[in-house]
Write a structure and sequence with these properties.
Layout (H helix, E strand, L loop, with lengths): L2 H5 L5 H9 L2 H12 L18 H11 L15 H21 L4 H13 L3 H14 L4 H13 L3 H14 L4 H13 L3 H12 L5 H13 L3 H14 L3 H13 L3 H15 L5 H14 L3 H14 L6 H14 L2 H8 L2 H12 L4 H14 L2 H12 L8 H4 L2 H15 L3 H14 L8 H13 L3 H14 L3 H14 L2 H14 L4 H13 L3 H12 L7 H14 L3 H14 L3 H12 L2 H4 L21 H18 L7 H18 L2 H10 L2 E10 L6 E11 L1 H4 L2 H22 L1
Antiparallel strand pairs: 1-2
């Protein structure tokens, strides 16, 4: 409008009101009111007759609110120039929009739709093509593009779009359905069939195949539909596909064909988890055809091979069928298999549940035939543990052992028993681990069959493939019972060749020779044993060697063994044992029953210790005391143990002066404190108390240490006084 129009509202009544409101007097009145506000007093505090809620106030304010929305003015285009200008502006807006939000497919679709509304198909196609370059996997974009071409009856363009869409996105079923629907609407059945063939190469889901079959049936192409069904069940070998195929043949009245379809389905699918529906449909089909024997056979086969939990409905159908067409015996036969079904179900859920296998086998052994039990054992041993670790095989290997014992004791078939043992031994991965029990049981079976050569061969294979302590012990025990000493010696030699660090093997070999009275052989074996660099229990070996020499009455040899042992170890127990050996007569050191070997110095004696023996013992105690008092060792506790043993010896064999001499060497237990340091930083974090031993030779240095500590304190106090 004109300037006069803009100023018009201020010239009238409103302007006068504004001038009156802004005069000097009014301004002064307002200032006075602002400075001296008048307090508001409530005249009546009683409730009003008419109450107004907050909700009413808000609703009234909303109703009185003015609408600020103003619609955009309509633009009327009267000539081509204005139309071109409008189109140019609109295209510029769309171009700016798609440039800013390039990945927004909705903006592209609006742009193309606007171009379509302007009847500019070339530009609309261009927009769609540009959008497809941005996101060619957007299904909505392809659908709108093709629908635009179809709306304008551009069939070839639409086919081109559908071809490109199905080629780029073959897994989108909606594109194929739209394409096929267009061809059918055009009456191009051959073209629709060709599109279906292209689609079937991508193996779509069940709905796609059934759509193809329905199209063929709409045009009475039964043979073509049957061919599509054949391809359908090959592509999707499921119960749903086979049942649909059989129903198709049944609706056409082809019962033999339908039966063949069901039989082929059972043969092709096997015993999968989903075949229960197949058995139900098959049995219902045979019942419908009045083939009751066939239906009964189908039910029995299914119940024998289908897990129990999954066959509840099938079982109910079978009982219903027998009530209608069968007798009571058939129903009782099915009910008697419940336990077997339960075991089968558990084993199918977890084939490695070996405890379940044991229970199942026990059931079959009590009621089944030998062939049934053997078949079940074969099934059980076929469930190999998942990993080659011995902890997984411990329960599994007892299936083989029970199988062999069943063949030997129940079936009394020695040939099959031997075969089971051989197969078990072949099956065990001996390079990773082995089971001595299986080797020993196989060899003992051969002994029971009076086949010593077979037993020796089994033991020989065991030693060659998996040499273990139990196998050697069992083999040697068998040869000892047979009295073959030379074989025992050869086995011990092989034993020690395989496990030279086994002290048990050396001790048993030496014990064998000692029992045979071969003293020199025994001594030679002990000598070879103590010369080994690595031994698992050397203390047992040395003890047995020393006990052997003591038993033979060879004190000098035993003393020499103690000296050699002291060169290898200076353990406090060795020192004490050496001293007791020197202090006690040999007849009291000879091995007795367990628990009586160390009863030295107690009770009455037939022969007491001589003066030389006592002196030798005292010398050993002195050497031990001197060794453990070495300040570099820090072995105070071991030294106390030696002194206590020495004191006990002197109380039994020495005089009071000797006891007093040892008592003078005894330390005094004192409580001390030491700093505790952090393991990572090494910083001192506190103090801890501990018990220590203070020997007499260390007490003499204590006054000097106290004197030095007092001197340090005096010097520190002197420095503090001077600084103060």
């Amino acid at each position: 409008g004109t300037p006069s129009d803009l100023t018009a509202p201020f010239d009238g009544e409103g302007g006068g009101a504004l001038s009156r409101a802004t005069g000097p007097g009014a301004m002064a009145d307002r200032m006075g009111q602002a400075k001296l506000p008048r307090a508001t007093r409530v005249k009546s505090k009683q409730a009003a007759d008419r109450q107004i809620t907050a909700e009413q106030l808000i609703r009234e304010a909303k109703d009185r609110q003015e609408d600020d929305y103003r619609a955009a003015p309509r633009q009327k285009i009267v000539d081509q120039e204005e139309l071109d200008e409008y189109r140019l502006g609109k295209r510029k807006e769309f171009e700016d929009l798609v440039r800013k939000v390039r990945w927004n497919i909705s903006a592209w679709c609006k742009y193309a739709k606007w171009e379509d509304s302007q009847n500019d198909l070339a530009r609309a196609r261009s927009v769609y093509e540009r959008a497809l370059e941005v996101s060619h996997r957007n299904v909505t974009l392809w659908l709108k593009y093709a629908e635009m071409e179809m709306r304008h009856k551009n069939v070839n363009h639409a086919r081109n779009v559908w071809d490109r869409a199905c080629t780029l996105l073959p897994r989108i079923d909606q594109l194929w359905y739209k394409y096929i629907h267009m061809e059918e609407m055009l009456g191009n059945v051959a073209g629709a069939r060709q599109v279906f063939e292209r689609w079937m190469k991508w193996e779509p889901d069940h709905q796609g195949w059934r759509a193809y079959i329905k199209m063929e049936l709409r045009y009475d192409e039964v043979d073509r539909a049957r061919g599509v069904y054949e391809r359908y069940v090959r592509c999707h070998p499921t119960v749903k596909a086979w049942v649909n195929y059989a129903k198709f043949e049944g609706k056409l009245g082809e019962r033999e064909r339908a039966r063949q379809v069901y039989e082929t389905a059972v043969r092709e699918l096997g015993l999968d988890a989903n075949t229960i529906d197949l058995f139900q449909k098959f049995a219902q089909f045979e019942e419908f055809c009045k083939e009751f024997d066939r239906a009964r056979a189908i039910y029995k086969y299914a119940l024998d091979n289908v897990p129990r939990k999954q066959a509840e409905e099938l079982y109910s159908d079978y009982v219903r069928f027998e009530k209608k067409h069968g007798d009571r015996n058939e129903i009782e036969d099915v009910i008697s298999r419940k336990k077997r079904f339960q075991y089968e179900e558990d084993l199918k859920a977890n084939p490695s549940a070996y405890d379940t296998w044991f229970d199942y086998l026990r059931l079959e052994e009590g009621s089944g035939t030998h062939d049934q039990v053997r078949e079940l054992y074969e099934r059980a041993i076929s469930n190999v543990p998942p990993a080659q670790e011995k902890r997984f095989w411990r329960r599994y290997i007892y299936l083989w052992i029970n199988y062999a014992l069943y063949e030997e004791l129940e079936a009394e078939d020695a040939g099959r028993t031997r075969e089971v043992y051989q197969q078990c031994l072949k099956f065990i991965p001996h390079r990773t681990f082995s089971f001595s029990k299986v080797w020993i049981l196989a060899a003992q079976f051969e002994v029971r069959q009076r086949n010593l050569s077979g037993a020796r061969k089994t033991y020989g294979r065991a030693i060659g493939m998996a040499p273990k302590k139990k196998i050697f012990d069992s083999y040697i025990e068998m040869e000892m019972q047979l009295g073959n000493v030379d074989r025992c010696r050869a086995l011990y030699e092989k034993y020690l060749e395989v496990m030279p660090s086994s002290c048990d093997a050396w001790c048993k070999f030496a014990d064998l020779e000692r029992n045979l009275g071969e003293t020199e052989r025994t001594r030679a074996i002990f000598e070879l044993a103590v010369q080994q660099q690595m031994l698992d229990k050397p203390e047992n070996l040395w003890k047995m060697y020393i006990d052997f020499e003591i038993g033979e009455g060879e004190r000098e040899r035993a003393r020499d063994l103690y000296e050699r042992l002291m060169e290898r170890t200076k353990h406090v127990k060795v020192w004490i044992s050496f001293a007791r050996f020197e202090a006690v007569p040999l007849h009291r050191l000879q091995p007795r029953e367990e628990g009586e070997e160390e009863e030295v110095g107690g009770g009455s004696e037939e022969e007491g210790a001589t003066y030389d023996m006592q002196q030798r013992a005292r010398e050993i105690y002195r050497r031990a005391y001197k060794y453990f008092r070495d300040p570099n060792l820090e072995a105070k506790e071991e030294c106390v143990m030696v002194l206590e043993a020495w004191k006990s010896f002197e109380q039994e064999n020495g005089s009071s002066d000797d006891v007093a001499a040892v008592q003078e060497k005894m330390p005094r237990q004192v409580k001390r404190r030491r700093p505790v340091r952090d393991e990572h930083t090494g910083e001192e974090v506190g103090m801890e108390e501990y018990f220590d031993y203070l020997f007499p030779d260390e007490v003499g240095a204590a006054p000097l240490q106290a004197l030095l500590a007092a001197a340090h304190k005096w010097k520190k106090r002197k420095v503090d006084e001077e600084s103060g």
